[in-house]
Automatic annotation (TrEMBL):
Belongs to the short-chain dehydrogenases/reductases (SDR) family. Keywords: Oxidoreductase. Residues 12-22 have a biased composition (Polar residues). It comes from the Bacteria. Residues 1-22 are annotated as: Disordered. This is SDR family NAD(P)-dependent oxidoreductase. Residues 1-11 have a biased composition (Basic and acidic residues). InterPro entries: NAD(P)-bd_dom_sf, SDR_fam. It comes from Paenibacillus violae.
Length: 212
């Protein structure tokens, strides 16, 4: 790490994009031509993720959409050009590694990694490592995915990592011993904590790149 760059790091601030809650994906993209670009969109077969996948593909990008059950996702993405389905379970580290290895083996660059998948208000449960399910799926899974795909992101020479979040992070906090000892059934609060961690996740990537 570059200690000089680290000591001069500044707090991030909002970027006045001119877009708002009613802006559509197509409006945000404008007239950009994404021919030759590659995007991976988790959760890209439902909700915001599906619309993101559709608009990116229609603009010329090749879009990879991973899903725990690709057969179920297939119907949702039918008719979208240049869209490829993959298999991924964000609660399973070996599944994440497998997807990354398969992608890297193609030799492709990755211009966009869009983390849109997530679970919300799930009953308290844990993954095989003992981590709470929302934290494991929505935060740890995406962190590992970005780390494993880093060589492909670097190859793009200007890649973007996007983490879909909400204002819910304002209501979250980080509790001591949260990672392994959480017992409460307050699903909303756990959801807000996850939103805050997604903010930390993007800031950590930004700070890492600034200090290289």
């Amino acid at each position: 790490m570059n200690s000089h760059a680290s000591s001069e790091r500044k707090n991030q601030s909002a970027i006045p994009s001119g877009f708002g809650p009613q802006t559509t994906a197509r409006e945000a993209l404008g007239n950009l031509d994404l021919t030759g670009k590659f995007a991976l969109v988790t959760g890209g077969y439902s909700g915001i993720g599906l619309e993101t996948s559709r608009v990116l593909a229609e603009a010329g990008a090749t879009v990879i959409v991973p899903a725990r059950t690709p057969d179920k996702a297939r119907a949702a993405v039918a008719g979208i050009p240049r869209l490829e389905l993959e298999t991924l379970d964000l609660m399973d580290p070996s599944s994440i590694d497998g997807l990354a290895e398969r992608f890297l083996a193609t030799g492709r660059k990755l211009d966009m990694l869009i983390n849109s998948a997530g679970i919300m208000a799930a009953p308290l449960s844990r993954d095989a490592r003992g981590y709470e399910s929302q934290f494991a799926t929505n935060h740890l899974g995406h962190f590992q995915l970005a780390a494993r795909l880093w060589p492909a992101l670097e190859k793009a020479n200007g890649a973007r990592v996007v983490s879909v979040s909400s204002r819910g992070h304002r209501l979250g906090g980080v509790e001591k011993y949260y990672l392994m000892t959480l017992q409460r059934e307050d699903v909303k609060r756990r959801y807000w904590e996850w939103k805050l961690k997604k903010k930390f996740y993007i800031e950590s990537i930004s700070n890492f790149l600034e200090c290289r």
